[in-house]
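Students often ask why inverse folding is considered easier than folding. One informal answer: many sequences map to the same fold, so there is more than one right answer. In these notes we will look at a single instance of the problem. The structure comes first.
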């Protein structure tokens, strides 16, 4: 079965760190760009970060630049999102997804949600004291 499984979410205090993982099964992700999205309560889903397959180019939303780092381990068929200096506004369900393209789908600096063909079920990150 082709799927993504996210893990690593949890409760963390403001200023803390967390690493979430996106493990692929049923296919190899090394040929595809992988994007992390998040959806906070009562808000629309938004793109957070993406890593391409071709040259490892990365993209970040302005709200997480300098704090989050995306990386891929093709040997483990997994993409990671390292989140540092977490803020309460980072609280959301984090999803990984792909549109099966090699490069990230970005329009005017925004990671596009439409066109994603495969989604995981998400992992909840809560930043609170």
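Output (designed amino acids):
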């Amino acid at each position: 079965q082709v799927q993504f499984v996210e893990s690593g979410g949890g409760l963390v205090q403001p200023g803390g760190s967390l690493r979430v993982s996106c493990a692929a099964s049923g296919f190899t992700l090394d040929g595809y760009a992988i994007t992390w999205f998040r959806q906070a309560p009562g808000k629309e889903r938004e793109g957070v970060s993406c890593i391409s397959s071709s040259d490892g180019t990365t993209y970040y939303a302005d709200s997480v630049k300098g704090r989050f780092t995306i990386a891929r381990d093709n040997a483990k068929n997994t993409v990671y999102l390292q989140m540092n200096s977490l803020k309460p506004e980072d609280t959301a369900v984090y999803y990984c997804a792909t549109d099966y393209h090699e490069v990230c789908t970005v329009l005017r600096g925004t990671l596009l949600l439409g066109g994603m063909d495969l989604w995981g079920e998400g992992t909840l990150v809560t930043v609170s004291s």
